[in-house]
Design brief:
homodimer; Umud Fragment, subunit A; 2 domains; about 220 residues; 11 strands; DNA-binding
DNA sequence: ATAAATAGTGCTCATTTGTTTACTTCAAAT
DNA sequence: ATTTGAAGTAAACAAATGAGCACTATTTAT
């Protein structure tokens, strides 16, 4: 379970996420400090330690930019991920997502799917979401399909992602031009969403697969 | 268009991708060197420069771990092709089908996918086909998708099936009214096929699943 | 055969970057 | 009133890391 962050910590956490998404690598202490007018690296470091203690980050000691974002916060999920049968990755399937709850919380797990490790490239944090709604039918994603999500993947413009807006989770095409983030559906009947309040928006992960079962 | 890589460059590029995927940040020159037994950082650096010049990477000068992966377009680097011997609901993937040969002949197998037995109802004869062509895009099946086929399933009108017509294998919607068999595509640009010579037609199986991998 | 591209070693150097200690400020809780 | 926790400054330090040069070896193409 994730512990609550202070306002400052949350802003820093969001910045790290955005930096990582835009650059493909995490920021340094000094880059974070510069952004938030913190003149001492020590001040930044303690923020990172707080975020680590609360389970949001992992930090590799003495490694530059050794920040990795922790998107699978609950320990129960780790148990699910470690159930590997003969080196085959078992991916948890997330069903309904209660408002405000972490997306990978145990109570949301509906089942699991087993994928050949040759297909899913060593991303043990992957999970699957059951799609509700038809906003992506033109991209060949239907209601009831499972989308496989890689939380650590680098998201680029045009990628299909799962985004969280306030307490809603949706599948859309991601576009970031001049810091204006757009979430583009693939259905003429839906409108593009322009993200205004970045605090209420986060990228859950990139869609790396689609699985559909008929009957 | 991306330029071709040397064997060495490709291995290094794949390693960088995997490292990024696993750790959330890119490797350092020395970490790459260690992996490939390159004792000098300069040797590694020139590989990165080559990869940059050929459009695979971007590098931020003087920044540690300042490597970002360029995912512009088609990366047909099939690092996914090896087979492992495990016996749990392993579904073979059929690639090209030689004219006249039985569709599940061993030489046609391109790989395999492992599916949770909870999903596939113990149909051990299931196999997967890689879709070529776009005749089913309106049913959410795109070129390159894998369709999972159950040869034993009972096929009803309206079901999606894989049919063999002479030496061609296609995915279509099946309809049989008054002994007139129609194969209906899901794409306005294609025409419904009416089967005349039933000797040259057979049902390979029913489509029970669709799997798509993005990137 | 000769030039060009590829691959690598060993070394030095400069910068980047994380670590640590000591001290300050402020607000909220006890 | 005192303690506690969050937030920050300044300075010195060590480790990590990229940059660069001179030189060698092998393969590939002209």
């Amino acid at each position: 379970m994730k512990k609550k962050l202070t306002e400052r910590q949350e802003k820093i956490f969001i910045f790290i996420q955005e930096y990582q998404q835009e650059n493909g690598y995490p920021p340094t202490l000094r880059e974070i400090g510069k952004k938030f007018d913190i003149l001492s690296t020590f001040g930044v470091k303690r923020h990172l330690e707080a975020l680590t203690k609360k389970g949001y980050l992992n930090i590799l000691s003495n490694a530059s930019r050794g920040i990795s974002i922790n998107k699978n916060e609950s320990e129960s999920l780790d148990l699910i991920n470690y159930q590997e049968v003969n080196n085959i990755s078992k991916i948890p399937i997330i069903g309904r997502v209660a408002a405000g709850s972490p997306i990978t919380a145990e109570e949301n797990v509906e089942g699991s799917i087993v994928i050949d490790p040759a297909f899913i490239k060593k991303d043990e944090d992957s999970f699957a979401l059951k799609v509700k709604g038809d906003s992506m039918i033109e991209a060949g994603i239907f209601e009831g399909d499972l989308v496989i999500i890689s939380p650590k993947a680098i998201v680029k413009n045009g990628d299909m992602i799962v985004a969280r807006l306030e307490d809603e989770v949706t599948v859309k095409i991601y576009e970031n031009k001049n810091s204006i983030v757009k979430l583009i559906p693939q259905n003429k009947n839906y409108q593009t969403i322009i993200v205004k309040n970045k605090n209420e928006f986060s990228i859950v992960g990139k869609v790396t697969g689609v699985v559909r079962w008929i009957n």
